[in-house]
Design brief:
The chain is of the alpha/beta class and 206 residues long. It contains six helices and seven strands. Helix content is 37%, strand content 14%. It is globular.
Length: 206
């Protein structure tokens, strides 16, 4: 995959969005960075993390990566439909999928392909200052393709994930994804919160 011929847009320049932008730049891609808070986008531009923060440049993006919450992703797509390339490939990294992919596909023109995904990586902290291009190394990158997606679009995202440094790129359904995440991620957060809020902080608290 020749990233020198790829233009990627990253929507949301926090920990994950910044990490995507950094790693894609390392691979040779041109990167457009869009962020709700302009000062963050300007910082990314100054630091050379992105090449442009001009929303009008979205029309050049081959791949659009949404590193935003599901509701914000849907809202952004609705508000900027005329700004995307007619054959763009879109993906998101939201931790819980629900009906997001279906909701977005219903409003997209036929040429744009939306494939939900979830890189299983991260670390403590948040924001652009915590971004790390090595965050993907050795991680799993889950794809959630639909039967309506073009096979070549799925393969492009698979190759991108491997190039980022991810080790495995499995494909599952949104329902399977949310069920697995509920047990492997959400449940552990619930248990940790229950423990820290317990009236007993002894080591043997059950």
């Amino acid at each position: 995959m020749d990233f020198s011929k790829i233009t990627a847009a990253v929507i949301g320049l926090g920990l994950m969005g910044g990490s995507f932008a950094m790693r894609l730049k390392e691979l040779g891609a041109a990167v457009i960075g869009i962020n709700r808070t302009l000062s963050t986008a300007e910082a990314a531009l100054r630091q050379g993390i992105v090449d442009s923060i001009d929303i009008s440049d979205l029309k050049h993006a081959d791949i659009v990566i949404f590193c935003t919450p599901a509701k914000a992703t849907l809202a952004f797509v609705k508000d900027h439909l005329p700004d995307f390339r007619s054959d763009a490939i879109m993906t998101d990294i939201a931790g819980v999928k629900g009906n997001l992919a279906d909701d977005i596909r219903q409003i997209l023109p036929p040429g744009i392909d939306f494939i939900s995904s979830h890189p299983m990586c991260g670390h403590e902290g948040e924001g652009l200052s915590r971004a790390d291009p090595d965050i993907f190394r050795g991680a799993n990158y889950i794809l959630l393709p639909d039967k309506t997606n073009r096979p070549e679009s799925v393969e492009l995202l698979r190759n991108m994930a491997l190039a980022l440094g991810c080790r495995h790129v499995p494909s599952i359904t949104p329902e399977e994804h949310d069920r697995h995440i509920a047990y492997t991620s959400d449940l552990t957060h619930v248990l940790a919160a229950a423990l820290i809020n317990s009236t007993s902080l002894k080591e043997d608290t059950k």
